[in-house]
Amino acid sequence: MSSQEAHLSLCTAYGARGVPKLIETLRSADADDPSPTRTALTTLHSLLSTQENKCAVIQSEDAVALLTAQLAAPDEGCRRLAALVIGALALMLQGRIAVREAASVGVLAGLLADGADAVREAASSALLALSQSRDGCSTLMEHDGIVDALVAALGDDAAGAAALGCLSTLANLSRLDLGVSAALDAGLMAILCAVVGAKASNPQLYPALQTLWNLANSADGKVAAIDCQALSHLAWHVARGGGDARRLAAGCVMAITVDKQGKFEALDCVAPLCALALSPAVADDTDPDAPPPDASAVRDAVGALKNLADWPQARKQIAKIFRREGADKLLVEGPNGDAVPLFDRPITDGGVWPESERFVHQNVAPGGAATKAEVAVRACWGYPAPLASE
Predict the structure, then answer these.
(1) What's the burial of 177, exposed, middle or buried (CB within 10 Å: 0-12/13-18/19+)?
(2) Contact at 8 Å (CB) between 56 and 19?
(3) pTM (2 decimals)?
(4) Using one digit for the tens of pLDDT, what is the confidence trace for 180-215?
């Protein structure tokens, strides 16, 4: 039954009391006969495509508490559907407040170890919905062990749909610097390097690279990435990755090579980074059908090269490649359609880059002027937007 059909059917039977009637069904749920509860949850989930119906559910003070109780129901279908409904409500601020008050996060985290694949996937999607907002991330982190539960779910089912939701949730948490230490302590970096090292385009690759980049923005994350030999895998993706993989891999290298040891370990990355930095002006003869280079990917490659240029051996290799390609004479189309130099100054000049405002956002209110400035800075320097659930 579609959302529109379900809504029409309920309005015909109960008028405006359709949603309250479904909640009343949850209040009288019988564990011995879960069929009415499953039907009510299915109908309720189909109705939550509209903000009005979400508000109607949230206005019932015990609705989210009833849904949280169903997360522990013996019936697999009830557990899965309750998680899906909570995930839909969590896309609204009032819904996230209700989820917090009902202490739903701990129960959802427990479902990540459920024996049913569909239940684990639904629980991970609900947690991902919470992580798409700043206040939702704070709600997640209020539960002790949430990061450990998410990392453990990756280890149990690294290729499943539930793992994708967990990995995307971790990417969002680490985007706001929440849970970075806990994630590193739980061994997340080794899991990320295993996904990236597979050198295959799969749904987990994008959030894995994004999470690796976020973790590598911390001092401990840089060390962990170097210890896991992430740079050799990243060099492959910078050279051969598709879509956003090249941009994210270059960003990971840029973050890791702030560390002195990272510069020493990243020689394999120099050639592919140079190729990416020069790609706007140098056609790829090996793949004429290749899409045009992404400007943000080029920017991140230049940033990584600037870090590497602090090490004389890497700087020598960069200069050699640039001389061979005639980088100082390469032209690209400017904003007015005229030809302009690809680089307006030497890439190895050692100049000071703009000050990072990465940590400023944690102490400002959402929606304020400082937050807007943070968004602009993050967009400029390649920090990704939060991953969204489907």
Answers:
(1) middle
(2) yes
(3) 0.81
(4) 999 999 999 999 999 999 877 788 899 999 999 999
Q: How is residue 360 written in tokens?
A: 């400023």
- Rounded distance between C-alpha atoms, residue 239 and residue 59, angstroms: 53
Give SS3 for 92.
coil
Q: Could you report the per-residue pLDDT of 93-115, keeping only the tens digit for each?
A: 999 999 999 999 999 999 999 98
CB 371 within 8 A of CB 338: no
Per-residue pLDDT tens over the stretch 267-316: 999 999 999 988 876 555 555 555 566 778 888 998 899 899 888 899 88
Return the DSSP state at 333: E
Phi, psi of 284 (to 5 degrees): -90, 100
User: What is the rounded distance in angstroms from the CA atom of residue 302 to the CA atom of residue 309?
Assistant: 10
Average pLDDT value for the chain: 82
Residue 262 neighbours by CB under 8 Å, 6+ apart: 222, 225, 226, 231, 256, 307
Query: In 3-state terms, what secondary structure has residue 340?
Result: strand
Residue 157: partners with Cβ closer than 8 Å, 6 or more residues away = 117, 120, 163
Which helix (H) or strand (E) segment holds residue 69: the answer is helix 63-70
The token pair at 93 is 């601020």
| Spans of all domains in the chain | 1-176
The CATH T-level fold of domain 1-176 is Leucine-rich Repeat Variant (1.25.10)
Hey, is 339 helix, strand or coil?
A: strand
> Which helix or strand (DSSP H or E) is residue 332 part of?
strand 331-333
